[in-house]
Specification:
By secondary structure, this protein is of the alpha/beta class. The chain has one domain: Rossmann fold, CATH 3.40.50.150. Helices cover 27% and strands 19% of the residues. It has five helices and six strands. It has helices spanning 3-16, 31-41, 55-58, 106-116, 147-155, and strands at residues 46-49, 72-74, 89-95, 117-126, 162-167, 172-176. A hairpin with a 4-residue loop joins β5 (162-167) and β6. The longest helix has 14 residues, at 3-16. The protein is globular, with a radius of gyration of 15 Å. The protein starts with a helix and ends in a 5-residue tail after the last strand.
Length: 181
């Protein structure tokens, strides 16, 4: 693991020690779209990439309204979800996560996501600085880029039906099918 990646994960491990931080409530930034994608593609196996503390499943039972089993959960800063699964999933979604990942690590993350998604990917990405400040004093959103930048990053990876929702300073919703708009 790269030093920069580990540096940020460690900052989030510290941040997550406060039980009120990142409970899994950023899901509202993509709930309707993810619900539609699950229905549209018939997805049954899902991965929430960056699930936080996963209260959207453990308390709010989000997955039950989709009619699917519990999604696989991944968040490298939360011990119970820190192991990245190795199998492929019908759908992989990530809301309010990518902007927390250093720019030079994004290609590696996208490579993994696009190589492990069979039917769809949904990315909900904030395009403005965060309110949250990491323990080291840095803004929690270290990769704040416009919609076009994210589209170009997606196009560099194995194509799969992808919905990108950007909100904040740069807003947009882009559907890419087989890597093309």
């Amino acid at each position: 693991m790269s030093d920069i990646k580990e540096k940020y994960i460690e900052q989030y491990r510290i941040y997550h020690q406060d039980q009120t931080k990142y409970p899994g409530n950023s899901f509202r930034n993509g709930d309707r779209h993810i619900t539609d994608l699950i229905k549209e593609t018939g997805a049954q196996t899902l991965l929430d990439y960056g699930c936080g503390k996963a209260t959207q499943y453990t308390q709010q039972k989000q997955h039950l309204k989709w009619g699917v089993g519990m999604p696989a959960l991944y968040d490298p800063a939360v011990p119970e979800y820190a192991e990245l699964p190795d199998e492929k999933f019908d759908g992989i979604y990530s809301t309010d996560v990518m902007e927390h990942i250093p720019e030079d690590v994004i290609p590696e993350v996208f490579e993994w996501i696009f190589n492990h998604a069979k039917k769809f990917v949904f990315l909900g990405i904030s395009t403005q600085p965060a309110v949250a400040i990491l323990p080291n004093g840095e803004n929690a959103h270290c990769t704040v880029k416009p919609v076009e930048w994210w589209v170009e990053q997606i196009k560099q990876h194995t194509p799969v039906y992808t919905h990108l929702k950007c909100y904040g300073n740069y807003r947009g919703y882009v559907v890419l099918n087989n890597g093309c708009e």
